[in-house]
Amino acid sequence: MALKDIQEEIIRLKKENDICLLAHCYQSPDILEVADFVGDSFALSLSASKVTNKTVIMCGVRFMAETVKILSPDKKVILANADAGCPMAEMMDKELIEQVKEQYPDYTVVAYVNTTSELKTVCDVCVTSSSALKICRSLDSDKILFIPDKNLGSYIAEQIPEKEFKLLSGGCPTHARIGMAEVKKAKEAHPDALFLVHPECVPEVVAQADYVGSTTGIMDFAKKSDAKEFIIGTENSIVSHLQLACPDKKFYPLSKDLVCHNMKLTTIVDVLNCVKGIGGEEIELDEDVRLGAKRCIDKMIELG
Ligand code: 13P
Ligand code: SF4
User: Fold this and answer.
1) 214 ligand 1 Cβ < 6 A
2) Which of 104, 119, 181, 206 is deepest in the core (most CB within 10 A)?
3) Residue 258 — φ and ψ, nearest 5°?
4) Mean pLDDT of 48-60
């Protein structure tokens, strides 16, 4: 089947079966073209709470599909590729955080949304890269235990020096492996380019940025900017999306290694199988876990 025919079939079956297709912006262009909503983690969480269709298919990673189920328990929620997980979300479990909380009893536990539903049950509030700053600022508490992303936590802590942060040593393996050598090389090759960076990168890299933000934050900045050249310090799919959206500007990857293989697992054929009802994995959550995690997601939406 040609790509165009697959996409037409997906669109037809979505309508026939009352399906909403959500896609994270790291997904490939053929998937984004048939999605009903494309966004960063925060925007996907918001849309998950508003969707009216009886089935939702998530093209992204597992914690994103779980967030949809947490907010919409009566919907059938399907993760388009059952193997698509986020390694950062699996780095810390509930038992570890319960132990850490004993050491810091008076700290508010802020969890990046890239965590399991079970872990969220022992946290106070979730954040995403685009909402973390606003939420950490607006919390009453001035003592914050930020988990699991040390890099995002350091960036937020630096912006809010009046609050005390405790960080643990988790992070995104894709963003965190890029260092100063790549920054130097990219800046030397493109001296006129603005440098746009995701806060999951290490602090030395983030310190070199002209703009720091989430995936959609980076895209919005590049689209609105008068500059003509940009080095993109996040997953490389954003380089191609931006090049397509702004053909008169130039976009360079910070490194060819900035590829999230987990986000790349989902294919247009997976999506076709899901809308046919023969693919993906239906997300099921224990009701106690769902309600415990929902507290943190609801708070994120309220404060974000
Ligand atoms: P955002 O979508 O919040 O920018 O996060 C990127 C990411 O790594 C998703 O897992
Ligand atoms: Fe997880 Fe990093 Fe991939 Fe995002 S880019 S899904 S944080 S591994």
Assistant:
1) yes
2) 119
3) -80, 70
4) 92
Which secondary-structure segment (H or E) carries 23?
strand 19-24
Q: What is the DSSP string of 200-226?
A: TS-HHHHTT-SEE--HHHHHHHHHH-S
Ligand 1 pocket, residue 115 CB under 6 Å:
no
Which residue has the least CA distance to atom 7 on ligand 1? 41
Looking at the domain assignment, is residue 227 inside a domain? yes
77 belongs to a structural domain = yes
Residues 165 and 297 placed together within one structural domain of the fold: yes
Which protein residues are within 6 Å of ligand 2, measured from CB?
A: 61, 86-88, 114, 172-175, 235, 260, 262-263
Instruction: Quote the pLDDT of residue 45.
Output: 80
In single-letter form, the type of residue at position 21 comes to L
For residue 114 and ligand 1, the question of a CB distance below 6 A is answered with yes
pLDDT at 224: 98
CB 171 within 8 A of CB 92: no
Q: What is the CA radius of gyration of the chain?
A: 19
Q: How far is the CA of 61 from the centre of ligand 2 (A)?
A: 8
User: Does 223 map to a domain?
Assistant: yes
Please give the residue range of the domain that contains residue 99: 88-173+292-303
Q: Please check whether residues 107 and 184 belong to one and the same domain.
A: no
- How many domains would you assign to the chain? 3
How far is the centre of ligand 2, averaged over its atoms, from the C-alpha of 272 (Å)?
Answer: 24
Reported as type and span, the H/E element at residue 229 is strand 229-233
CATH number at residue 248: 3.40.50.10800
Q: Is residue 179 part of a domain?
A: yes
One domain for residues 205 and 140:
no
